[in-house]
Amino acid sequence: MIGKLLGIKKPLVLAPMGFVSGGALAAAVSNAGGLGLIGAGYGEAQWIDEQFRLAQGARVGVGFITWSLAKQPELLDRALAHKPRAVMLSFGDPAPFAAKVRAAGAKLILQVQDLETAREALRAKPDLIVAQGTEAGGHGGGRSLFALLPAVKAIAGNVPVLAAGGIGDAAGFKASLALGADGILVGTRFLAADESLATPEAKQRVVQASGDNTLRTTVFDIVRGYAWPARFPARALRNAFSAQWHGREAELKASLGAEAKRYGTAVTARDYDVALVFAGEGVDLIDAVLPAAKLVERLCP
What we know:
By secondary structure, the protein is α/β, with parallel strands linked by helices. The protein folds into 2 domains: 2-197 and 287-299, Alpha-Beta Barrel (TIM Barrel); 200-281, no CATH class. Helices cover 42% and strands 15% of the residues. It is built from 16 helices and 11 strands. It has an 8-stranded parallel β-sheet. It is globular and about 50 Å long. The two termini are 17 Å apart. 51% of the residues are buried. The mean pLDDT is 96.
């Protein structure tokens, strides 16, 4: 179903991970038979243009954080000028953007974390819904994928549903299909791809990590100055910074000046004892950094 809808050979979509899913990674996934989505993150016009340039020759899409896009809606026009195959929106009301995406000829993909967000998304008449389980890396809700997926499928009607969260191998792909998914959206496994924008040090952290080494927390958003809704904490690798401040968020806010400076220094130095690495619980399945085409083949043989 989604093969014809998206013009792809394999029912796999790359999660539009901010600062990770650039044009080279998106193109590699698309060229391997899936659909690559550029992760526009919090939005920067020239960066979006550059990533589409790097993906030139491949049919790719783009993903936005909806509440961030609402603050700078011109970025959607910027992305649509590149004729993306699809636009994915997550976390926020998609209604103000749905008609413009459809008018541009792009498919509208909306990510949901519970039945409330699923019903809101369906009112915007998307082409695809992504049911994101709490196992996923980055920001997400509190419901596990294999409980959420059938519930979303039950209310989605004729709208295809992709499964997301903790999927890192062919077994996860097959299990998702068994529970009614029409395909999968994968993030963390592609963080450890040759073409991803993650640093080599961050990729190795993911390769070496276990799902037990992740936690859902707000401390990295606080120190970076991002005001995410409390219902959507982010899953990341545990490190010394999260050990120091998780559960002491009020104290972190009181010390924000010094801690933000320390955090910025750590990012520049690639010191991941302090700096953030988003990762899902499926990191147990990541054993090496590999080309994206090889990962597509492993996930959807």
